[in-house]
Amino acid sequence: MKIWVDADATPRPVxxxxxxxxxxxxxxTTFVANQGLSVPNSPFLKTVQVPAGFDVADNYIVxxxxxxxxxxxxxxxxxxxxxxxxxxxxNPRGEKYTKNNIRQxxxxxDFMEEMRSAGQVTGGPKAYSQQDRQQFANxxxxxxxxx
Length: 147
Description:
The protein is an alpha/beta fold. It contains 5 helices and 6 strands; from the N terminus they run βαββαβαββαα.
């Protein structure tokens, strides 16, 4: 198992949890972003800077990940693609995307995007909380224990 992180929008607390988990479990964890990133010095932590552009980081992750890998992303279309490749995807709040729920999540995402475009819905997701952080850490630990 390798871990791939859609790092452009990943909250700092999630990155810190991933740094510790990668070093503790010795699982290669790659942070992919269209800007330079710095991670602690470890053979299990790697960064990849991709060119700026729409979905460039997402496309890189889809091309590189394999069945059995873990992808951390809040991007539902990216999650759908990696789930189709038999990889596991979780978001920074610890919610796991599966073949059973990803289509529903995509439909809801598209619906909410239409509502925002029509001015019916404003604002974004709720602030990242300590509870979200704990749920992410717990989900990550369970997934790493299964490998």
